[in-house]
Write a structure and sequence with these properties.
Elements: H1 7-20, H2 25-37, H3 41-54, H4 59-70, H5 78-92, H6 96-109, H7 115-126, H8 130-143, H9 148-160, H10 164-177, H11 182-196, E1 197-198, E2 201-202, H12 205-221, H13 227-240
Antiparallel strand pairs: 1-2
Helix pairs in contact: 1-2, 2-3, 2-4, 3-4, 5-6, 5-7, 6-7, 7-8, 8-9, 9-10, 9-11, 10-11, 11-12, 12-13
């Protein structure tokens, strides 16, 4: 519902979730983030405070509380919004350098927001600067650890950098937070592929099977748009049948 199906009803569902289990920190976090994205900072802070009353040691909620208390104006500042939109526009145009510059300006204006770091990471990913992309995604995750897509982005970069074990752990975190996003399954599939295939040789058939399953799940969730996942899934099946090649 929060992602667009019925955002006005999302709060009711989050409320029901915390009534069933007051320690469900993710419900508080998603609810507060939804409110903050529509400019309802005071209401978002109230939800975070409610969550911290139930889970006082939760780092994610503590981070959100600090952001909402210390910089509420940044979330709706015109200069910040203009810089962020410029970064996103450049990203859509595949103008990587322009996206990096604009995201950097947005980040300077609102250092407590994860969005500029996410766009920055996407721009670096687009230009194949993997170390820089990973660093940006890590900063974004520090600011919003409740968002699965940020863990997924990290997992993909870790896999592409050959850090397979870290990639698998991070990819599993992404899927654990949100099993409905194709990107999370895609990242986990790439992580397992990196773990399974090294130096043009299959070193772990079990991980290869897990990679195929995760990539196929990504295709199932977005069968018409995720062409890269579909190609990866077909490649994984060929390898399972005994083919070679790199992950």
């Amino acid at each position: 519902m929060q992602e667009g199906l019925a955002p006005e009803q999302a709060g009711e569902r989050f409320q029901r979730a915390v009534e069933l289990d007051p320690t469900t920190w993710l419900a508080y976090g998603l609810w507060a983030n939804s409110l903050a994205n529509t400019g309802q900072i005071t209401e978002a802070l109230q939800i975070v405070d409610q969550g911290l009353a139930a889970t006082p040691d939760n780092l994610a909620l503590q981070t959100m509380q600090a952001r909402f208390r210390d910089g509420p104006a940044a979330a709706t500042d015109d200069a910040y919004n203009e810089a962020l939109e410029a970064a996103r526009s450049a990203l859509r145009e595949r103008s990587w350098d322009d996206a990096v510059a604009a995201a950097g300006r947005a980040g300077d204006l609102a250092s407590d927001r994860y969005e500029p770091q996410l766009v920055l990471g996407d721009a670096y990913r687009g230009s194949n600067q993997l170390d820089e992309a990973l660093a940006a995604y890590e900063r974004a995750t520090d600011l919003a650890p409740y968002l699965s897509i940020l863990h997924g982005r990290q997992a993909e970069m870790l896999a592409r950098l050959g850090r397979a074990e870290e990639a698998v752990a991070t990819g599993m975190t992404a899927v654990a937070i949100d099993q409905s996003r194709w990107e999370n399954w895609y990242a986990l599939g790439r992580a397992y592929a990196a773990q399974a295939i090294r130096d043009n040789a299959i070193v772990d058939p079990a991980s290869l099977r897990r990679s195929e399953a995760a990539l196929l799940r990504a295709v199932e969730l977005s069968p018409t748009t995720v062409q890269s996942s579909a190609r990866a899934g077909r490649a994984a099946r060929r390898r399972c049948a005994g083919g070679g090649g790199r992950a």
